[in-house]
Amino acid sequence: MGRAVTPGSGVEAELAKHTGVEIHGNSIRIVFMWKRRRCRETLGLPVTKANIKHAAQLRAAVLHAIKTGTFDYAQHFPESRQAGNYSTNRDERLHLLLARYKPLKAVDITEETERRYGLALDICIELLGKDRLASVLMPEDIQNLRVTLITTRTTSTVNHYLAVLAGFLGWCEANGYCRPGLANACTRFEMTDRDPDPFTKAELAELLNKGCLHPMDRAAVTLAVYTGLRPGELGALAREDIDLAKGQIHVNRAITSKGTFKLPKTGKRRTVLLFPPALEACRELLAIDHGIEPQTIDVKLNRHEAKQETVTPLMSPVVQARKKHVNPWFIPSSWNSKWANIQRRAKTRPRPPYQTRHTYACWCLVARGNLAFIAKQMGHKDFTMLVQVYAKWMDDESPNELQHIWSGMQSTS
């Protein structure tokens, strides 16, 4: 209990001005709430008006640190016997925890994924307050972060950030650095379904005849549309991957934005059977002499293993480059630039390069291709993705499906 102050001393009037400051024995102490517990700290200062004002300022600084999540009991009161009760070795600042988490997470992901995760985490921790203690984070803080992120970023980007942050907070929870349930507060935003936007046959003709200025470009666009290869897989194709006799392409690798090589998206190589236009495109690409010697490259199998291959680019920026030093392979950014120019010259509605993959899928489905076959050609694990993404082309474009199935039933014994 605080000691009564002698009336008329002026100290009583000063003390009445400040909440949470009281007299204890012959000294001043401050009272505040920390982690839902009432804390009292005697300052060892004699009872004077000046010291009461000083104690009030100290308490205000403590409350501010608590509110901003930067309060460290032992740092503010190093000689307090209570510091051990209120501060534990689990009280860690977010930026220090993040520095420990990143290398632990990195061993399970690729270098490119590590870069993307690191960027997302850095942004989230900066917005939450990198000097805050993880133990004081509340679900409300995560909810406020969601509001901040969605005001300046696309929904898909924000959802990526929140997914990565949830992983970090889950690690913090498992190790006792923060309260349970924070990871669950990283609720992703609902996204409206974006239908594929395939090219029509007329648009493809415009792209090939007006947009492409070089035979390599025409062959590359044709190959993209009639194989459904991802842009990174298209850029990483090698002459050695083409089997004209069997009419197929071996998709053995993909190239990243950094110019490094990895396995295709599903982590598995695949063989794509070629439609006649794609087969002819391969012949044209093989006939172009770009003068590039076989390249010895490392293809990342996972974070810790790589396989060396000696292969020759099937298509290369060198063919049309004006600069002397050019990457012999098309990385996604260089193909994006070329693709944008092709569309501009063709005067077709601008769409990202990935729409050539969607075009392949939609054209196959409209032609009533076998779902399992199409999924295998495109490198999906199964045809679930086809059903989810391309249902419009399966339903709307097949109004006579019932009659088609019934006719098939009648022909079987």
TrEMBL record:
Stored InterPro entries: DNA_brk_join_enz, Integrase-like_cat_sf, Integrase_catalytic, Min27-like_integrase_DNA_bind, Tyrosine_recombinase_XerCD
Ribonucleoprotein listed as a keyword: no
GO molecular function terms attached to this record: DNA binding
Keyword flag Aminoacyl-tRNA synthetase: no
Tyr recombinase domain: residues covered: 194-407
GO BP annotations, alphabetical order: DNA integration; DNA recombination
Keywords tagged on the record: DNA integration, DNA recombination
Protein name: Integrase
